[in-house]
UniProtKB/TrEMBL annotation:
<dbReference type="InterPro" id="IPR032675">
    <property type="entry name" value="LRR_dom_sf"/>
</dbReference>
<protein>
    <recommendedName>
        <fullName>F-box/LRR-repeat protein 15-like leucin rich repeat domain-containing protein</fullName>
    </recommendedName>
</protein>
<dbReference type="Pfam" id="PF25372">
    <property type="entry name" value="DUF7885"/>
</dbReference>
<dbReference type="Pfam" id="PF13516">
    <property type="entry name" value="LRR_6"/>
</dbReference>
<dbReference type="GO" id="GO:0031146">
    <property type="term" value="P:SCF-dependent proteasomal ubiquitin-dependent protein catabolic process"/>
</dbReference>
<dbReference type="InterPro" id="IPR036047">
    <property type="entry name" value="F-box-like_dom_sf"/>
</dbReference>
<dbReference type="InterPro" id="IPR006553">
    <property type="entry name" value="Leu-rich_rpt_Cys-con_subtyp"/>
</dbReference>
<feature type="domain" description="F-box/LRR-repeat protein 15-like leucin rich repeat">
    <location>
        <begin position="316"/>
        <end position="387"/>
    </location>
</feature>
<keyword id="KW-0833">Ubl conjugation pathway</keyword>
<dbReference type="InterPro" id="IPR057207">
    <property type="entry name" value="FBXL15_LRR"/>
</dbReference>
<dbReference type="GO" id="GO:0019005">
    <property type="term" value="C:SCF ubiquitin ligase complex"/>
</dbReference>
<dbReference type="InterPro" id="IPR001611">
    <property type="entry name" value="Leu-rich_rpt"/>
</dbReference>
Length: 474
């Protein structure tokens, strides 16, 4: 956010304004100055046309002078006239104009625009729609240098903008207690809390969980002071989404706490190097009804035995990621394909033991799969791509750095008429001739070809010409 230049955003604001008034014309009438004409036209573009008062009709020459029609009173609706601005300064502080003008910018750019003046800030802070998709990140080290009243104003501005998510960077137990005291309304308005690279301990996390009564999504990343015992004390049944990433003390017992204390859990994401197959054995049919998304990243100790526990306890999964679980083999994928047939998304990236046989199991049994990720599966060949090409429901396919895929495999992909996203980044054996055949994928929305030796400038131009609706990432 800080990398955005204020001057650049203001320049873009000027460009957007020029674009909107382009073609309106600068007519020089006898009774209207050119400046007034432009201001009225710009106001009409952004604020709506005003109801102009019609001039009275001229008397008809065909009627006799002695039989002129009696004048009639016409009732006109008394609509307020649109104010006419004679200077740009007046227009740029009109709230109705600004409310539509700010819609032409991204949420990140609006953060800079809010610093132009108090009027712009008030208009932007008044409507939550300007901030959709943003998560405020508070650097606790900087917050410690603020006065208490300044921190209170900051938290108040978050509520004015309709934020329900909050990320604390570098938080300690003292920072957690300060937020509880300075931001009492967070108990009802904060639904998502992220703690990143923080030295907050079990006591601080427990205090936050007690204070944030509306919280249902928790994300802990790089919180090395939080222990498994602390998770047993802090986790509340209202949590439906939990992410534990790179927390050094998280191991099998932490997964046990998740399985026992969160019966309504829908999404669970875990990155922990010390988690074993035993941890996945803590899940029971109690979670099978609610848990739909399970992402296990770089869990190096998980084997096919852990997959057995997953498919037996969590039969209703729709999203499964085993990215970086390097001990998973084709047999584990066969178990997944046979038992988790509701899957919509499957991620097997960085699983070096996966071969074409695993792709045959996927193609035969996972008929509802829409997204498949096979990045760095170095043993996948054109034969496996042939199996995948028979999957009619597949919409997104990621094959980054699959080093054995050749042009022959691309010929199979060209028959996948429903494919919308395709990544072939880093595939070294593909040539321009093979890649040019991808123009047959008329429904493609995104094509990634970064680090492909066979891709040339001529190829990119050719693809963009024949796939005008597709974003080609070079």
């Amino acid at each position: 956010m800080s990398s955005i230049s204020a001057q650049g955003v203001v320049e873009r604001a000027s460009a957007e304004l020029s674009k909107r008034i382009n073609g309106l014309g600068l007519s020089r009438g006898k009774h209207h100055s050119s400046k007034g004409s432009v201001m009225e036209r710009v106001t009409n573009v952004f604020c709506g046309n005003s109801s102009a008062v019609q001039a009275p009709e001229k008397p008809s020459r065909l009627l006799p002078a002695s039989r002129k029609p009696a004048p009639t009173l016409i009732r006109r609706s008394c609509k307020p006239l649109q104010p006419v601005y004679h200077t740009w300064e007046q227009l740029m502080v009109d709230e109705k104009f600004l409310a539509k003008f700010f819609l032409y910018f991204s949420p990140c750019e609006r953060c800079v625009l809010a610093q132009v003046c108090l009027r712009w800030r008030d208009v932007l802070y008044r409507s939550p729609r300007y901030w959709t998709g943003l998560v405020p990140v508070l650097q606790c080290r900087e917050l410690r240098g603020f006065q208490v009243t300044e921190r209170a104003r900051l938290y108040s501005s978050l509520l004015r903008r309709g934020f329900h998510s909050l990320c604390l960077m570098g938080a300690t137990n003292e920072d957690a207690l300060d937020m509880i005291n300075t931001f009492p309304l967070a108990s009802k308005h904060i639904h998502t809390l992220k703690l990143q690279c923080s030295s907050i301990g079990d006591q601080g996390l427990e205090s936050l969980m007690e204070h944030l009564q509306a919280l249902y999504e928790l994300d802990l990343a790089g919180c090395n002071e939080i222990t498994e015992q602390g998770l047993w004390q802090c986790l509340h049944p209202r949590i439906v989404s939990l992410t534990l990433t790179d927390c050094i003390n998280v191991a099998d017992e932490a997964v046990g706490a998740v399985a026992q204390l969160l019966p309504a859990l829908y999404e669970f994401q875990l990155q922990a190097y010390h988690v074993t197959d035993q941890a996945l054995g803590y899940f029971s049919p109690k979670q099978g009804c609610s848990l739909g998304v399970l992402r296990l990243h770089s869990c190096w100790e998980i084997t096919n035995h852990g997959v057995v526990n997953i498919v037996h306890s969590l039969p209703n999964l729709t999203v499964l990621s085993l990215s970086g679980c390097s001990k998973i083999t084709d047999d584990g994928v066969e178990l997944i394909a046979e038992n988790l047939q509701k899957l919509r998304s499957l991620d097997l990236s960085w699983c070096p033991r996966i071969t074409d046989a695993a792709l045959e199991y996927i193609a035969c049994d996972l008929n509802q799969l829409e997204e498949l990720t096979l990045d760095r599966c170095v043993h996948v060949t054109d034969i496996g791509i042939g199996y995948i090409s028979t999957m009619l429901s597949l919409q997104s396919l990621y094959l980054r750095w699959c080093s054995q895929i050749r042009d022959f495999g691309l010929q199979h992909l060209c028959g996948m008429r429903n494919l919308q996203v395709l990544s072939l980044a880093g595939c070294p054996l593909l040539t321009s001739n093979g890649l040019s055949s991808l123009i047959q994928l008329r429904h493609l929305h995104e094509l990634e070809l970064t680090n492909c030796p066979g891709a040339s400038r001529e190829l990119f131009d050719y693809l963009k010409e024949h796939l005008p609706r597709c974003l080609v990432i070079e």
